[in-house]
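[job 4417] fold queue: 2 targets
>>> target A
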Amino acid sequence: MTLPWPTHWDSVFGRSAPLVVEIGFGHADFLLDFARLHAEMNVIGIERAHSPMTWAEKKLRKNPLPNVRLVFGEALMALHCLFAPETIHQIHLNFSDPWPKRRHTKRRLIDTGMLGVLVSRLKPDGGFFIATDITDYAEQIREALANIPGITNVYHPRPWHDERDNAAIVTHYEKKAIAAGRPRYYFKWRRTGEPALQPPILGVEFNMATITLHLPLSLEEIAQQLKTDTVHQYGERIIKFHHLYQQVGYPKLALDTYIEEPLFQQRVMIGIRERESHEYIVGLEPIGFPRVTRGVHDAIYAAAQQLAALHPDGRIVDTKVRRPG
């Protein structure tokens, strides 16, 4: 199902209860054990990889838990878009990918930007817990936490503990670290009443958008002439056109489009549909549950501009998009 921004989680669960989120649940051992031990809480797991989602879904089909929901997506985007500020009771990040190679450390999930969004979503007095078994990652986390306002270290003056508070719940990777004798680092921080960092605003979803073109070319001629692999940039928003597809049996083309904007990326199809002779409708195709963001409006506008430029008489007749700016 497609979730609204932000999501009203009480409606999704069918009850009002403290909201707990685990980011990157992997094998889902911690997620499901936590949900079983805390039936009084609504528990959400966020995961970006297909395999963990499949594993978790199989486990839930075998042993259903009514207080668990799974979200497939990037953690930063999910936190920013699906959760209103100050709505989460607890957040857990257990042994996220450490990207151990020096050239890959930028890919680590936990940094100041991520922590700023995380803290803004916590309720006052809400807690978040981070665990890793990589020493330099632990130091990076410690330094990042020191730069985040509105939180306090529960373990102060120590930066972390060496053992988990809730020892009854152990993750898959945690078991591996224990078996290998590696040190573990457990952080526990609490949201205070002080103001938190305000992350960039992605914005609400816009209405569906279309542009009507006058273009004296056939679909076949458009397919032959339209250049793909082009890039358009409007401020922080980047539009990349890739392949062009012709739908068999329909007077329509579909332009494979990648859209990158602050905190959110998506792959969509921009449709080019022949309405009548020399007139085309350019708009978003409902493939893959796209979100109608400002970037989508930019992509439709950029596609229409490229199309109109294919012929001296090409022009925009009508537009229902917000022009870049």
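>>> target B
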Amino acid sequence: MIDPKTPKAWANTLAKMWGKRFPVNVNQIALEYTQTVCKSEPIHKITPADVSEFEGALYKSGAKSRWYVLYNPNIGSPGRINFTIAHELGHYLLHRASVNSFECSQRDLIDYGGNDSIKREEEANVFASYLLMPLDDFREQIGNEKISLDLLGHCADRYNVSLTAAALKWLEYTDQRVVLVVSRDEFILWARSSRPAFLSGVFYRKSTPVPEDSLTILNASTMTEQRNGVELTEGIWRPNEVVREMRIVSDQYDLTISLLLLPKNAPQRYYEEEPVHDLVYDMGRLFRR
């Protein structure tokens, strides 16, 4: 069999082998597949490593040509660990021919740019997203239901990922105008718009202040979540549009994730100054719970 060449192709290949069973057992796939198909340099062990320098790592043991996947147990949540292991498996399948070790910290995944090392992180995130949350099954779970944190929570439980991971997966294909905003200390760290939202000119830049009357600011002290969202008047998030904001608190409680749902109909405009991102690249940024 000729090895797949892209992150999505690798994920689809392994997902078909695993079958329609969820959540995907990444540990089992990583060990059984590599020890059966990649006998000369398999993944030998997946183990916790109590270090603060990274969330996940992949190392090659010199003489024996064995690979080891490490993850930080202090991550805490099963969904976050599950995605981390899938991310490292992506590195093994896609990048081991050129690099013998990978250490993937939270900072590495948030502050990405255009260099080769960061491109590898993005590709590993794409792989993990498509392996854990196949798009066809994800669409079936969402169906035509009105989006809510309970519905996204159902997806998060099904795939053993975080609520924000499920939200980003939905943004990848939805025809709704929606933006996911990640903030800390009342400033935006990063944001991602669905394609319909972006094409109508809705995006938020890094370091932009969060609106004072947003749910993100008003509930900052209580850390409460709004399961179905709160409708905010014009002029808060958007000058002339009502926005429904759902507030998701990260498992680490140092970030706030806001999901902004805008009216479906808006003039379609394209803004050249802001690039369109592939949303699954952001999976490594997620704070899983």
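[job 4417] complete. Note on B: Strands lie at 43-48, 56-61, 66-71, 101-104, 178-184, 187-193, 230-232, 243-249, 256-261.
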